[in-house]
Write a structure and sequence with these properties.
single chain, alpha+beta, four-stranded antiparallel beta sheet
Amino acid sequence: MKTALAVKNTALTVTIDLGEAKDVHYPDKKPVGQRLALAARAIAYEEKIEYSGPVFESAKFDGGKAVVSFTHLGGGLVAKGDRLTGFLICGADRKFVRAEAVIEGNTVVVRSDKVPNPVSVRDAWERNLECNLQNKDGLPASPFRSDDFVNFFTRDGG
């Protein structure tokens, strides 16, 4: 994603929250168009509006947790629902497990009792996984991973 977004005047419109698990063809096309229009208005027409959901910026690992920072906060981070879902964390063994995640200010703190010394964190990185981090403008976070492990599509980290 960062490679594509490095090209001037480009944007990424996330629609992970709109589809259905077994059908990539969204039944309601209007929200997709609305999100694309936000990006066009912000980039092409230079309107001062938020056009993206949270985008991974960095992760710091310390004290058995990952503290994840984002750009495109859109007034702040929120969970669509009663708690954050969709986060995975792993230690040096690269075995990812589902993790607890909480919003603390403009960051998300991720931890698991199964991973005392985390080295990587991911969000929305499994098939059909419910993920619900978004900004206060209602735009969903981009799926991300903090690692560059070779077999990054497998849950075990390869």
